[in-house]
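Minutes, project check-in
Item: structure for the 202-residue chain
Input as provided by the requester:
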Amino acid sequence: MKYKMSFTAGTLLLKESVVISNLYLETRDWNVAREQIISSNLLQSRTSSSSKRISAETIGRLKCLKEDELSLLSSGNYQEQIEIVWLSICRYYPFIKDFSIEVIHEKISIFSTKLSHEDFDVFFNSKLQWHEELENIAETTRHKLRQVLFKMLVEADFLSKDNSILLSTLSPKVFNLISQNSAEELLIYPITESNLKGYLNG
């Protein structure tokens, strides 16, 4: 699977994701929802081009969610909304999913709490052999990708501003939805092995 590396188009986009998921659940049509967002400037963007770019990015992510996941994003509490948005990001961007599992989850498993820029660079370089699409990414773009990913993690409350990993406890509703699909997806969240076993054995 090729890595899609266009995630500099937006960070977590939590507010935008909730607005658009609400519209989709009303209309059941992504195109209609997108037209309403742009024509009424529901995302309160400064320009029409910005509204189009952000709505396209957000809809691309949300299309990766199932109906019951979209419903929870629309009606859930703040924590549940963040967790569902993160799920959509990891499905849309396998690079971020793999980073979350192979770097962040691995650090948690060895009780390491610091996430460094070097961790990103080492991970990126390790994927070059398997993903030739990464070879043509300029150094400046690579830095931007790292900056945006770290900002996403901070906005999701998975990372502090000094780059310390913040452990979380997964919402039972989100756990139930994900476990029906793929237990591996539980690893995209910064939860400990003991908590993970508790969820799976509970």
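Outcome recorded: The first helix runs from residue 14 to 27.
No further action items on this chain.
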